[in-house]
Automatic annotation (TrEMBL):
GO terms for molecular function: UDP-xylosyltransferase activity. Its EC number is 2.4.2.-. The lineage of its organism: Eukaryota, Viridiplantae, Streptophyta, Embryophyta, Tracheophyta. Belongs to the glycosyltransferase 77 family. It comes from Digitaria exilis. Residues 1-23 are annotated as: Disordered. This is Glycosyltransferase. One of its GO terms (biological process) is rhamnogalacturonan II biosynthetic process. It is found in: Golgi apparatus membrane. It comes from the Eukaryota. Residues 115-331 form the Nucleotide-diphospho-sugar transferase domain.
Length: 351
């Protein structure tokens, strides 16, 4: 029976068929609107409405949480390249890598190139944090990867993280800019741009540790035992030429053809080398001098070579070692962890 209807009442059981006098009829009962069941139902309805319709004005979900969420790679690249006459420096980081980024930025600033830096932030917290301290120098290219899964070298998360790199580079090249990419476990001791001689499509460094003569060839080295070269994908300079774009597109294709698996715990570097080998003769390449751009497996382990080539260093790569703490310790042991005493020189301040 509805709470909004009163019950049908039967007429009094009398033999008189005449209508009951209005003076003798029982008084009419009001609708039972104030009964306890009704009040409970009304209260439940109000609570339900309050949950579905929050109090106060709401912001549409399409509105960005901060102005940097709508910042595009096209806008960010134009901003950084404007400081470098059409050339920008690119790095990519998630939150745990911020101390490494800060160290790298100190060294880049000392070389007078910090204004050209664009950081690809791989999570929104990092995007906002960098731009709060250094507006315009960070951008996030959606979708944001799972940054927490990208820390362990050889993991699928690390592969997913690094495989985004050539897509960013290709987009920048197609915008018409030259771009130098660096991993942030590098440190600059001098400006590398005077070493980018000639008008080559791409410049890169060797990832091998055997010592080369100072006058070795700047051509692409011959393939190694695995049928490909061992060029480092962590330091690359590209001009916006058709040859450079061809190489990066091939790099992207190789990553698709050789995805990460448990058996082949790959990263982006083998695919880069296959792309170099398969485009040989179509791309004008330049191998940078080992004495100026040493791999970590050479610089940190061959003291004799370091003494013999003293004063020639430009960029040192802290690779051939894994783990944040191990890398930091090695930098500190060689006086290269600049954030300890020079955080005031970082555009990000103290991290």
């Amino acid at each position: 029976m509805s709470l909004h209807q009163r019950p049908h009442q039967k007429p009094p059981a009398t033999g008189d068929s005449l209508p009951v006098s209005s003076t003798s009829a029982a008084p009419s009962r009001p609708l039972p609107l104030l009964t306890l069941p009704y009040l409970f139902s009304l209260l439940a309805l109000l609570l339900f409405a309050a949950l579905l319709l929050p109090w106060g004005p709401t912001r549409p979900s399409s509105v960005p949480a901060s102005p940097w969420r709508a910042y595009t790679l096209q806008e960010a690249a134009a901003f950084a390249a404007a400081a470098g006459n059409g050339t920008l420096l690119l790095a990519a980081v998630s939150g745990p890598y911020l101390p490494f980024l800060s160290k790298w930025l100190i060294s880049v600033r000392r070389a007078g190139r910090a204004d050209q830096v664009l950081v690809i932030a791989e999570d929104y917290e990092t995007l906002d944090r960098i731009n709060a301290a250094w507006p315009g120098h960070a951008v996030l290219v959606p979708p944001a990867p799972d940054a927490q899964a990208a820390h362990k070298f050889g993991s699928q998360g690390f592969f997913n993280f690094t495989s985004r790199r050539p897509r960013h580079l290709l987009q920048i090249l197609e915008l018409g800019y030259s771009v130098m990419y660096n991993d942030v476990d590098m440190v600059w001791l001098a400006d590398p741009f005077p070493y980018l001689v000639g008008d080559h499509d791409v410049y890169f460094t060797d990832d091998m540790t055997p010592v080369k003569p100072l006058d070795y060839s700047h051509e692409l080295p011959p393939p190694g035992k695995k049928g490909r070269t061992y060029i480092c994908s962590c330091m690359i300079f590209l001009r916006p030429t058709e040859g450079a774009k061809l190489l990066v597109r091939k790099w992207i294709d190789e990553l698709k053809e050789q995805p990460w698996s448990k058996q082949r715990k790959s990263n982006d570097q083998p695919a880069f080398n296959w792309a170099l080998n398969k485009t040989a003769g179509q791309v004008y390449v330049y191998l940078l001098p080992q004495s100026a751009f040493p791999t970590g497996g050479l610089y940190f382990k061959n003291k004799t070579w370091v003494k013999e080539t003293k004063g020639k260093r430009v960029i040192i790569h802290n690779n051939y070692i894994t783990g944040f703490e191990k890398k930091i310790k090695r930098f500190r042991d060689h006086g290269l962890w600049l954030v300890d005493e020079h955080s005031d020189q970082s555009p990000l301040g103290r991290i």
